[in-house]
Design brief:
- By secondary structure, the chain is α+β, with helices and mostly antiparallel strands.
- It has two domains: 49 residues; 146 residues, CheA-289, Domain 4 (OB fold (Dihydrolipoamide Acetyltransferase, E2P), Beta Barrel), CATH 2.40.50.180.
- Helix content is 33%, strand content 34%.
- The protein has five helices and ten strands, in the order αβββββαβββαββαα.
- The chain has a five-stranded mixed β-sheet. Strands 3-6-7-5-4 form a five-stranded mixed β-sheet.
Amino acid sequence: MANLSRQLETDKQGNSLQTLLAALDRETAPSLALDAASLKERASRSIRRKKPYISFMLGGDEMALSIDSIQEIGYLPTVMPLPNLPPWIKGIVQIRGEILSVVDFLVLFGLKDERTPLRRSYILFKQQDFKFCLIANRITGVVNLDEQRDDLDPYSPEKAGHLSQLAAFFKGLFTLDKRTVCILDNEKLGTSPLIRKWQ
């Protein structure tokens, strides 16, 4: 009899504990749902804040340009040289019916290129009405950058002294894992009198 009474009491306690837990779950569920929604919203805002930059090799250095300033990327087609152009304009190419100047930053800014690839890539740079094909050794991928939160290191001669002529066009240096990517300022490139006068 004592065993039966103990069993009934245990069942009652078990049921009341389950009832209590169920009541707690019902009360906290809306708050938990709000917390989960808030976390999701914060995560999606963080993803939306990040801006993609196309990264590429220019000689032995990795650069990146905002995707907003890039109309197209691909392998460089055959370049037709023209007379009376500065040495950093390699000639012209036709891409999708458009005739575009091919600009070599290695020559323009006096950068070294120890290893010339068999097949080079191009980036079709566009800033408002201004377009040109920028020669790249190769496209390396995408760098996602939150311009408000990700710290860009300022350019300093100790970090990249050989890039001093190109430094005026840097937003800064972005370190990602063990890579240092030079983030280029598309506004400065697109308005540069040096480049635009040969449009």
